[in-house]
Design brief:
By secondary structure, the first copy, chain A, is an all-alpha fold. Chain A has one domain (3-195). The first copy, chain A, has helices at residues 3-29, 34-56, 62-65, 68-87, 91-115, 120-141, 155-170, 175-195. The A-B interface holds A 54-57, 118-119, 121-122, 125, 136, 140, 143-146, 148-151, 155-156, 199-207, 210-211 and B 22, 24-25, 27-37, 39-40, 50, 54, 57, 59-61, 64, 67-68, 70-71, 81, 84, 87-88, 91, 94-95, 140-143, 147, 151. Chains A, B, C: Residues 10-84, 96-167 form the Glycine transporter domain.
Chain lengths: 211, 211, 211
């Protein structure tokens, strides 16, 4: 691992913990049992990367190679049960950690696809799947229409961050600079989107029937 | 690609556009944002083939090899937003394009499984997954019980078309004739099923509890 | 196949039939058509092993190698329609068969991961996915929050059975003894859990909002 990748991975661990903890709260809203909580934490934190790897045929999956990640994320989800009464006080901390996760996972996902020699579009898409799909899986398991498709800019942040990262690498910018630049941009973009409630326009179609 | 396959693929592109556009309308009914619309379009149009390839271990996936397909289907879904007011006038056009897609994707799916040397049952099943699974994924993401399991003959059309195609090839009928015959049969079958509301019998079980 | 594995596989077939039949009842509660019934039967009975294989990159999938399994499970689901009026009388039989399936699939799943040389944590997790994921897929297709996450000890039984099996093998206990011991323990544990309604504690979190 290059130094920049080590730092990314390290931040990625914090983000995984944060995603597992917010998933645990979603599980609690559905009155799931402790096993469901741990499981939803693992799926949410690790599902994006797993889906990317299954789509690209990139084996073994990260958590299969490093099973400790299951204990880390499942454990974080279970810990949330004990902390449930105070967790909401750290609302902003979670938002920031989640934003870090979005951006960091995006770049890690881009790296995986680049290392496999995929075309640039696929590199950006792989980043987006890594950053966003965990939350989609969480919402499917909670039988909710994925939040991703209906709330503040999230996937778009991932898309733009990935595109910036790919462009920087493509034009031969120093790697560390590209990483720092993309992370800083993506993080700022996401936090501003939350702060000012930037949303994608919605498509509302009322006509009934299959078409 | 053989000539018959080229023609199939060409019709398949139209069908992908049609599936992405009807998925966009489903997204609009769930008030998704523009990103969700594009995403649901891609998943619906490309999800069947992707699931087939993941189940068979057939890498790389089509859209990974041809990322333009993501732009085509995502773009078609977005275009639907602009056309939403008039789209319902083309209701029958969409039904026909969707029927073409069902049949064409089925045969493309059979071809993939045959080229991997799978037994005939799996060839037919691969065709069915390719033809039908995109719509199932769309319904899961919209948190609806898949329409496929509850409406006019759809999967059955795919099943019969695939079986016909497999049988024709198995008995050494001229390839072009098998393709044309299966497509014509499947298309007619599906359009008649819509016209006359042919449905599979339903299984209704009212008793509560886990069993 | 070793003798112990043959016996396991044989019991596994009964369990697949039982899982397909209970899935058929779930399909009937959603008023699915016959195709949906057959399909939900296949997915529930074979989905756990398929998901495990896709996550581990273990190809070909079992039902791709043995397509007869599709006919067996799909057929069992369809047969349930004819038997719907009397099926509930065999409620306890189904519970026992399902418990056998849980335990047997868990051990089969552990074997697959062991044969690929995965670390012990992954072996146990692979067993759990094999034993439990079919029911999760069934619930997702029925748009219900997975029962697994909310009811009597089920995944926990799988977890403990797998851990016991892995530990026995790890410490060099005679293979047949490990298989019999794990199956007997798991089965007893699950049946006691049903009998005495042992449940995991639930995590209930009422606070609204994304976090």
């Amino acid at each position: 691992m290059q130094p920049a990748e080590s730092v990314l991975f390290f931040f990625g661990l914090f983000a995984m913990v944060a995603e597992a903890m917010t998933a645990a709260l979603a599980a609690g809203r559905r009155k799931m049992d402790w096993f469901g909580v741990a499981m939803l934490g693992c799926v949410t934190a690790l599902g994006g990367g797993s889906l990317r790897d299954m789509l690209l045929g990139h084996y073994p999956l990260l958590w299969v190679k490093h099973p400790t990640l299951l204990l880390l994320t499942g454990g974080a989800a279970l810990l949330t049960i004990a902390l449930a009464r105070v967790v909401h006080r750290f609302h902003y901390l979670f938002l920031v950690l989640d934003a870090i996760g979005l951006v960091v996972f995006t770049i890690i996902g881009c790296n995986v696809a680049m290392s496999m020699g995929h075309p640039l579009t696929i590199v950006v898409v792989a980043g987006m799947i890594t950053g966003c799909a965990g939350g989609v899986l969480r919402d499917i398991l909670c039988t909710e229409v994925p939040l991703l498709f209906r709330s503040e800019l999230y996937a778009s942040v991932s898309l733009v961050t990935g595109a910036l990262y790919v462009a920087g690498n493509h034009f031969g910018v120093e790697h560390v600079a590209v990483v720092i630049g993309s992370v800083a941009f993506g993080l700022t973009f996401r936090l501003l989107a939350i702060r000012y409630k930037w949303e994608m326009p919605k498509f509302i179609y009322e006509r009934e029937g299959p078409h």
